[in-house]
Design goal:
By secondary structure, the protein is α/β, with parallel strands linked by helices. It folds into two domains: 266 residues, 3-Layer(aba) Sandwich (Aldehyde Dehydrogenase, Chain A, domain 1); 185 residues, Aldehyde Dehydrogenase, Chain A, domain 2 (3-Layer(aba) Sandwich), CATH 3.40.309.10. Helices cover 38% and strands 20% of the residues. The strands form six sheets. The chain has a seven-stranded mixed sheet, with helices on both faces. Strands 9-8-7-10-11-21 form a six-stranded mixed sheet, with helices on both faces. Helix 6 links the parallel strand 8 and strand 9.
Length: 493
């Protein structure tokens, strides 16, 4: 019998009230059941929210620098477990070990930065129009916040939500993705060992339609931070608005890399290959479209096809592997369904598409990396998020047409431009409709000290990461202190 992971409620590891469990399967080899985790019910959510609600007032009274010190301790503890976390991540999510290790190091950067923000929960002193009055602002916590996190960055994303929520003085109920329970358990362990008091951080496993939905509807949850699909995010945003909850959603992407006629083709090929095939295309910042000037189109296609042929699928723990599997059968089926869509739309497949099924690969969820040409901007393969290693290449004849094609999307997360012309760079910055912009650099990636997020259907609410991270988890109080010692009629407004 595989090991059972438990919920973490009020400082204790507890079994679900449902007594029901789900299997955590290795997507690279579905014959391996890594462990089991709770199929929790609404009563498990109620217990966690109750514990968080009871613990939050005392936590809010802990001085912010002391809360930050606990984040620094979590950073130290995570640094000691990098290899363990990376291996667990690879086994249950599928990404190759170097990518998993990179995610853990990124998480360490995030923790370090947010820990420092505990000493910068600054308000402002603002001149009052009333004589003998001191006016200023302070940041106050919200109360209990629900964090609903995805499987594709199962260490970094929970941490970049948990850390600012805690630094700001909130209590947390984390609902991690069903596909990645082990990494969620380790993250929870680290924060608890670092000194987060009982009840301040709680983790409840289970299905989104049960655990996630009840968190969204719970009367004692003041705010929800969600990362996942656009459909679910917009639903959460609407439901939160009905209940006057604060909501933050980071959702889909259909990110374009633009290669102009004066751009470095080899650099663009390397970036597109990393962005499209790295992490099996399962990043919100993945490169799913390349908009290429006609003068370098043939050269780019030839070289990106050669790069795709170099991809080596397999178990991410094997050092020879360069691309792991889709995370589960549902995600693989989504990728395969877009192959059918591409066929119906009449695009050209520069490589055979489908699923790897030879040898041990038949026991995993391995899609083939695919380059699609003859794509136009309005096709479904150029419009809809696939979350797999399918790359659509679009030919254009000018800078203006390239920007128009890149902006022809409901999403606006990340983009990249490859050019040597500085005037085009600044026109791109002005005209592109994305929240993250890269010049001569891949669409993927971000740094802890910069805001992360997008526009259009990519995101709603405050940005994550950077010094803006704590903004979502706080409310502003405006304070007027009248020291005149006499009644003067008050402020007319």
């Amino acid at each position: 019998m595989s090991k059972k992971i438990q919920n973490f409620v009020d400082g204790q590891w507890v079994e679900p009230t449902t007594s029901e469990w789900m299997d955590n399967v290795n997507p690279a080899d579905t014959r391996q059941v890594i462990n089991q985790f709770p199929a929790s019910g609404t009563s498990d959510v109620d217990r966690a929210v109750e514990a968080a609600k009871a613990a939050q007032p005392a936590w809010a009274k802990v001085p912010a620098p002391k809360r930050g010190a606990i984040m620094f301790e979590a950073h130290r503890l995570m640094k000691e477990r990098v290899d363990e976390i990376a291996e667990a991540l690879t086994r249950e999510e599928g990404k190759v070990l170097p990518e998993a290790t990179g995610e853990v190091h990124k998480t360490l950067n995030l923790l370090e930065f947010i820990a420092g923000e505990a000493r910068r929960l600054n308000g402002e002193t603002i001149p009052s129009e009333i004589p003998d009055t001191f006016a200023y602002t302070v940041k106050a916590p919200l109360g209990v916040v629900a964090l609903i996190t995805p499987w594709n960055f199962p260490v970094a994303i929970p941490v970049w939500k948990i850390a600012p929520a805690l630094v700001a003085g909130n209590a947390v109920v984390l609902k991690p993705a069903e596909q990645t329970p082990t990494t969620a358990r380790i993250v929870t362990e680290i924060f608890a060992e670092a000194g987060v008091p009982d009840g301040v951080l709680n983790t409840v496993y289970g299905a989104g339609e049960t655990v996630g939905a009840h968190l969204v509807d719970h009367n004692d949850v003041a705010a929800i931070s969600f990362t996942g699909s656009t459909d679910v995010g917009l639903h959460i945003y609407a439901e939160g608005a009905k209940q006057n909850k604060k909501v933050q959603c980071e959702m889909g992407g259909k990110n374009a890399l633009i290669l102009l006629d004066d751009g470095d083709v080899d650099l663009a090929v390397a970036a597109a290959a990393k962005g499209a095939f790295g992490s099996t295309g399962q990043r919100c910042t993945a490169t799913s479209r390349v908009v290429v000037h006609e003068d370098v189109y043939d050269e780019f296609v030839e070289k990106i096809v050669a790069a795709a042929k170099e991809v080596r699928p397999g178990d991410g723990l094997d050092p020879e592997t360069s691309m792991g599997p889709s995370v589960d059968d549902r995600q693989l089926e989504q990728v395969l369904s877009y192959i059918e869509v591409a066929e119906e739309e009449g695009v050209t497949f520069e490589l055979p598409a489908g699923r790897y099924e030879e040898g041990d690969l038949e026991h995993g969820y391995f899609p083939k990396p695919t380059v699609l040409t003859g794509v136009t901007p309005d096709m479904r393969v150029a419009q809809e998020e696939i979350f797999g290693p399918l790359l659509s290449v679009i030919k254009v004849s000018s800078f203006e047409e390239a920007i128009e094609a890149a902006n022809n999307s409901d999403y606006g997360l990340s983009s990249a431009l490859y050019t040597r012309d500085v005037s085009r760079v600044f026109r791109y910055v002005n005209d592109i409709e994305t929240g993250i912009l890269h010049v001569n650099n891949p669409t993927i990636g971000g740094e802890a000290q910069l805001p992360f997020g997008g526009i259009k259907n990519t995101g709603v609410g405050d940005r994550e990461q950077g010094k803006t991270a704590v903004e979502f988890y706080t409310e502003i109080k405006s304070v007027y202190i009248d020291y005149a010692g006499e009644f003067r009629g008050g402020n007319l407004y």
